[in-house]
Amino acid sequence: MTCLSKISFAKPKGAGKDRFQIMSKKSDFGLIGLAVMGQNLVLNVESRGFQVSVYNRTTSVTDEFIAKHPGKALVGAHTLEEFVQSLAMPRKIHIMVKSTAVADSDRDAVDAVIEQLIPLLAKDDIIIDGGNSFYKTTERRDVYLAEKGLRFIGAGVSGGEEGARKGPSIMPGGPASTWEVMKPIFESIAAKVDGEPCVIHIGPGGAGHYVKMIHNGIEYGDMQLICEAYNIFKHAGFTTDEMAAIFNEWNEGAMQSYLIQISGKALEQKDPETGASIVELIVDKAGQKGTGQWTLMNAAENGIVISTINAAVEARILSSKKKARVAASKLLTGPAVNITTAKAELVKKVHDALYASKIISYAQGLDLIKSMGEAKKWGLDLGRIASIWRGGCIIRARFLNSITDAYRENPELSNLMLAPFFIDVLTQTQQNWREVVSLATLNGIPCPAFSASLGYYDSYRAERLPANLLQAQRDFFGAHTYERTDKPEGQMFHTDWPEVIG
Ligand code: 6PG
After folding, report:
1. Is 376 a residue of the active site?
2. Within 13 Å and on the Cβ side, how many CA atoms surround 358?
3. Ligand 1 midpoint to CA 47 (Å)
4. What's the mean pLDDT in 484-495?
5. pTM of the model
6. Which of 171, 325, 327, 359 has the fewest Cβ atoms surrounding its Cβ within 10 A?
7. Pocket of ligand 1, candidates 96, 171, 257, 394: which has the most ligand atoms within 8 Å of its Cβ, to mutate?
8. How does pLDDT run across 80-106, given as a tens digit for each residue?
9. Per CATH, domain 213-461 is 1.10.1040.10
10. Residue 409 appears among annotated catalytic residues
C-alpha cells in the first residue's frame, strides 16, 4: 500500500481547496472524533500502511494532532465536506464519538454526525460506529442507513487507549458483505494471538455492540472479584506491597490476565507527594458509564441469571453512596475482624475463590450471549467470540484459551461450567471458595460477587431447589397452580388451601 509521506493542514478555515490540490491519493480510512481513543486508533491504522483522514468538531484538535505527527500518512480536514471528499470510495468512516441513546426516541451525538454525513455520502459508503453504543440503537441506525443506501457497522472496540494504539479486540456487527470490505483494515489493526487477529464478524445488526456490552458486563465482574480479593487481604492485615506481590505472582499462573496485571501495578504505585500507596488515597466511589447496567437489563429481559455481574454492578452503585455508607457505619454493627489464617494459606484460598468466581462470571456472560444469539438468530459462535477476547481487550486472560477450547470441543455446550476442564477446576477450588466466602461473611467483609458466584454454582447444580414451597405459596395466595413430581410434566394442579385470617 502506498501512502502519502506527509500532509499537514494547519491552515486557516477556508483553505480546504488548496489542501485537496496537494493530495496525491484519497485516504483508505476516515475517523471522526479525535479524543484519545480516536487518536490512537488513527495512529494504529496509519501504522499498518493505510492513509487516514481525520475530522474533529473542534478544528484546533485536528491541527494539533496532525502537527504532532509529522511524516505520517494523515489528512486533517476542517469540514466534513473536505473530510468526505478526501476518502476513497466506498468510503470507510469510523465514528469515535460517545453514544448515549438508549430509548427508541433518543438521538445523540453519533446520530448528529450521521445526519451530517448522509447528504455528503454516496451509495454503499460505510459508516462504522466504534463507540460503546447500545445494541438496540445500533439496530435502529442499521435499518435507517440501509434505507438511505448506506452501509453500517456497529463495532465494539475494547482495549482502552493502549489497545486502540497497539491492537484492540474488535467486535463488528452488520451485514457479512460489509464486513468483507472492512476485514483487511480491521484484521491488520486488531491485536494478534497465536497469529490470529482478535476480530471476527460477530453477526448482523446490533450483534457486535451486543457482544461488546456483555464483554463489559464480564469486565465488571472480573474487576469486582479482584477488588473483593484485595479487600479480604486488606482486612487480614496485608500491606499494599504484599498485595501487589500476590497479584504479580498470580499473573504468572492460571489467572494471568490484564486486569490482575494492572491491579498489581496499581497497588505498587506510590503517591509522589506523600509516598503513600496511591490506591489507598483514592476515594472508594466507583463510576460507571452504563454498559454494565444495560447488561443487567438485558439479562432480565432474557430471563438469564448473571448474579455475579449483577453483584458487580450493584457493588459499584453502593460504593457511590458514600455519604449514606459513612452514616450507616456509625449505626449498623458487625463483627470485629479476626482473621487467624496463616498468610500463605489465605493467599491460596483467595486465589481459588477468585478463580472459581471468575469462571462463574464468564459462564453467566456467555450464557446470556448464547440465549440472546439464539433468540435473535444471530448465529453467534461462542468459541470464536472467546478467542477474540484472548488479546487486545480489557478482559484478556490466559484462561480464555480454555474457554475457546471448551466451545471448540463442544459448540453446543449449555453452560461453560459443564466443560470437563471447568468441572475439574470448580471441583478443585470449591472448598477454598466456600471457606473464603464464610471467612469474609463471619468477619463482616462484604464479598457480594464471590458469594453470588457460589450461590449460582450451588443453585445450578442442585437437583432439587426449594421452589416447590414457592409454588405452594403462589398457589396459596393467587391460585397460580403447580406441577406435581408424581404426575406428567405440564399437568397443572391447584389446592384449596385453608383460609388464613389476620
Ligand atoms: C473496554 C472498556 C471500555 C469501557 C470504559 C468505561 O473494553 O475498553 O470496556 O469500553 O466502557 O472503560 O467503562 P465504565 O466507565 O462503565 O467502567
Report:
1. no
2. 29
3. 25
4. 98
5. 0.94
6. 327
7. 394
8. 999 999 999 999 999 999 999 999 999
9. yes
10. no
